[in-house]
Amino acid sequence: MKKIQLSDGMPIDIQRKNLNITSVELLKKVKKLCVESDLSYVEINKALYLVDKELYMEKISS
User: Which end of the chain is more exposed for a tag (fewer CB within 10 A), N or C?
Assistant: First the structure.
């Protein structure tokens, strides 16, 4: 199985000031979509977990 790097050695407590501009823009878009969805926190968290899992599986499969 292909191994991928899950982090760049940053601490667990990642802050916006530690992200590059592209990452901050992605963060803003994801947060906006989550707020606009009117889903509960639990449902948003499930969706975010699943998309993270799908992206991970795509990455190790490529």
Answer: N
